[in-house]
Structures are given as structure tokens and as C-alpha cells.
Design brief:
Helix content is 85%, strand content 0%. The protein is mainly α.
């Protein structure tokens, strides 16, 4: 699902870039980054909490708590989304933006996507809590980008030149379909006893648990979108578009890191419970090799023929994304060589180390990004992002060695540990 989801998302990026050019894609990308940040205070860890609480209540057959957390989450998301619908237009006007400007129209259209997204995430999280793991991810991960791609294809057959607000509108339709599908699946698979239960609300405990989850998720989202926001403020929409293309290809290059981390998470948890550090060490070392080599293979064509390849895929406006992509891609490869340390720490009860490393990396990005952009422009943005990610991986590698005495990096293979 992750592979197909990433491929469809990559295809959507290609369609958007070719349909709108660098300036239009920059406007769209900037609006999407703003929406991603706005989703953090709206959700604030609620989907993650719902998965945990629904799973726990389902095992205990505590149907009152199960239906209660769903009711509580739905009400809080509705309040948060409603506030954003009122706040964003007011902030745009106060900041001097005309509501009919391309960026304002795109962002305002995207508010509908924000609403559908947060509720779709809620329903998907509940399905995963009920142990429908595949169904809980299928609609959002695969169906939504696939439908968005089809709608963009239909739009290009109707209009001569795609506008950012039109492209966002297609995303709204795809997201609405995704949300409704997740809701239908949840209603179908919700236990009959839960339908008849009286909601038991435990707001205090749920808020205390969701706040740290929301902070961690917020740092992750901000780290992924901070460079786009800084370029949107300090540079032109065209520059943002060029950076977004490099970032979308870098996301594809990072696919092996994502897949290995997902695949080994339950294995690491089991080996830790079995107190088997030697097998954990071997698994971490070979995973580092797979992550690094997989990312290198995906990046290699762009290292060898980046400009013509990017021009053919995204359009001639984006040939200059090649250098930015090379810097970001090399950062991903070096980060992969340090191994799956975030998964290793999370699965062994050291999740606070991951949160601390995420905060430190975000702080480094926030401090270095503006300076490097002023001095080196796009290249500076790429270096700031890569340095931040490398620091994140290195910090967690150091913590894994400190707390678990495990070297998850590729060096563990060279040193011969995993050959024993």
C-alpha cells in the first residue's frame, strides 16, 4: 500500500507541475504546506489517541468507552475545523491578501480539504483500532491519490491551463470521497454492541495523552514543510515550485527508508520482548544496508541525468531542481546508512529520545534555514534540510548506542558484528 500510495502521489505531483508550471505549482505547494500546519492544531494527536483507545476498549469489550472516545474526538475535530474556517479568511485579510488572489483562492478552497482530511483520519484511525489495519489505510493511502490523479487528468481535458485553485478543487473531491468511504467502512465494521452503548467520556485523561502525541506530530509536519514556508516568504512562487519538485522526488527516493521502518517495527518489538539484542543488532545492520542501497538505486538516475530527466517528467521549468534533489537525496542516503534508529527506539520504550531528537533537528532547521536561504537561495534550503535530517538520524543513532548498546548503522556490518 505504501509503495502504490507513494507512486500515485508522485504521479499527482508530475501532473500538477506539468499542468501549472513552476509558479502555479509553487502557489499550490505553499497552500498545501499551510494546510498541513493548520491540521496539527485541529487534530492535535486525536487520531493517534483514537487508535490506541479504540484498540484497548475493543479488547476489554468496554463499548461505552469505545463509542465515547469516537464521540469526543468527533466533537473536538468539529470545533477545531470550524475555528479554522473562520480564522483563516480573517488572517488573510489582516495580512493584506486579497481573497480573490491565486494564493488566497487556493488556500480557501483547501480549507474544505482540511475538514475532510481530519475526519477521514479519524475514521481510519478507528478502523485500525478495531484491527482492520488494511482497510484503515487503504482508502487514504491509495484510493485518495489515485482518484486525485484521475480527476486531474479529466481537468486537463477540459481546461487549456490548470489553475492552482482548480487543482485544489480536484483534491477536495478526492478527499471527500476518501472520508465518506472511511466512514462507511467504520459503520459497517463497528461492533453491534458499540452501536447500542452509551458514550463514556474521559476527557481529562484523553487530553493529557493526546497533547504529547500532538506535539510530536506537529514537529514532524513542521520539519517537512518549514522550507516551503520559508521560501514562500523569502523567495518567489517559482522558487517554491522548483523546491517542491525536488522534495517530491526526494520523497520517492526515501521510500526504502519508510518500507524498512514499517516492516521491522513489530519484529524489533518482539525481539526486545524476547531479550535478544544480537538478533536486533543483525536486523538493524542489514536494514541499514537495505535502506541505503534502495535509496541510492532510486536516486542514481537523477544523479546521472537529473536535468533532462526532471525536464521530461515535470516540464522544462523544473530542470533546475536537479541540484537541489541531489543534495536532498544524498542526505537521505547518508541518513539511511545510520539505520532504523527511530523504529528501534520507539519499539523499545525510548520514544522520548525520538521526540527530543525531533525537537533538536527542527530547531536546527529553523535557525539555519533562513540564513542559508539568504546566502545561497535554493541550494541553501536543500543544505539546511539535509543537515537537519542528518542530525536527526545521528542523534537517534547515538541514543540507540547509549541505551541499547546497538549500532544500527552500516558500520556494524563492516565491523563484523552481523556476520557472527
Amino acid at each position: 500500500m505504501r509503495i502504490f500510495g507513494m507512486l500515485f502521489s508522485f504521479l499527482v505531483g508530475v501532473q500538477l507541475a506539468r499542468g501549472m508550471g513552476a509558479e502555479g505549482y509553487g502557489i499550490y505547494g505553499l497552500a498545501m504546506s499551510v494546510l498541513a500546519l493548520l491540521s496539527v492544531p485541529v487534530e492535535f494527536g486525536v487520531p493517534q489517541l483514537v487508535t490506541r483507545e479504540v484498540a484497548s476498549a475493543h479488547v476489554r469489550e468496554d463499548w461505552d468507552s469505545l463509542i465515547g472516545v469516537l464521540s469526543w474526538a468527533r466533537r473536538n475535530l468539529l470545533v477545531g475545523a470550524s475555528l479554522m474556517l473562520l480564522l483563516v479568511p480573517a488572517v488573510l485579510l489582516a495580512s493584506g491578501y486579497q481573497l480573490d488572489s491565486p494564493f488566497s483562492l487556493t488556500l480557501l478552497m483547501g480549507l474544505a480539504m482540511l475538514v475532510f482530511t481530519v475526519f477521514g483520519n479519524l475514521y481510519g484511525a478507528a478502523l485500525r483500532g478495531l484491527q482492520y489495519i488494511v482497510l484503515g489505510q487503504l482508502v487514504e493511502t491509495v484510493a485518495r491519490p489515485a482518484l486525485h490523479s484521475l480527476l486531474l487528468l479529466a481537468l486537463t481535458l477540459v481546461v487549456a491551463s490548470m489553475q492552482p485553485a482548480q487543482a485544489m478543487g480536484m483534491g477536495v473531491v478526492a478527499t471527500a470521497f476518501s472520508m465518506l468511504s472511511a466512514l462507511i467502512l467504520l459503520k459497517k465494521h463497528l461492533p453491534e454492541k458499540a452501536r447500542l452503548a452509551s458514550p463514556a467520556i474521559k476527557a481529562g485523561g484523553w487530553w493529557s495523552a493526546s497533547v504529547p502525541m500532538g506535539l510530536t506530530e506537529g514537529m514532524r509536519v513542521l520539519q517537512g514543510h518549514l522550507m516551503v514556508l520559508l521560501l514562500g516568504v523569502m523567495a518567489t512562487s517559482t522558487t517554491v515550485g522548483i523546491y517542491k519538485v525536488a522534495a517530491s522526488v526526494a520523497l520517492l527516493v526515501s521510500m526504502p527508508l519508510t518500507i524498512f521502518n514499517i516492516a521491522i517495527a513489530p519484529i524489533m518489538a518482539r525481539l526486545h520482548a524476547q531479550r535478544d539484542p544480537e538478533r536486533m543488532q543483525r536486523l538493524a545492520g542489514w536494514s541499514a544496508l537495505g535502506m541505503m542501497s534502495g535509496s541510492f538505486i532510486l536516486l542514481l538516475p537523477f544523479l546521472l541525468a537529473g536535468q533532462p530527466l526532471l525536464g521530461a517528467l515535470f516540464g522544462e521549468d523544473f530542470r533546475n531542481s536537479s541540484t537541489v534533489l541531489s543534495i536532498m537525496g544524498c542526505g537521505l542516503i547518508l541518513g539511511g546508512s545510520l539505520g532504523p534508529n527511530a523504529t528501534l527506539l520507539n519499539m523499545t520504550g525510548h520514544e522520548r529520545s525520538v521526540t527530543r531528537a525531533s525537537f533538536q533537528a527542527l530547531l536546527l532547521l529553523a535557525l539555519s534555514g533562513p540564513v542559508l536561504i539568504v546566502i545561497y537561495g535554493l541550494i541553501g534550503a536543500a543544505f539546511a534540510y539535509s543537515a537537519s535530517m542528518l542530525f536527526w538520524h545521528w542523534s537517534m543513532w547515538r541514543e540507540a548506542r547509549r541505551y541499547l548498546s546497538i549500532d544500527a548503522s552500516l558500520l556494524s556490518l563492516v565491523n563484523g558484528w552481523t556476520w557472527k
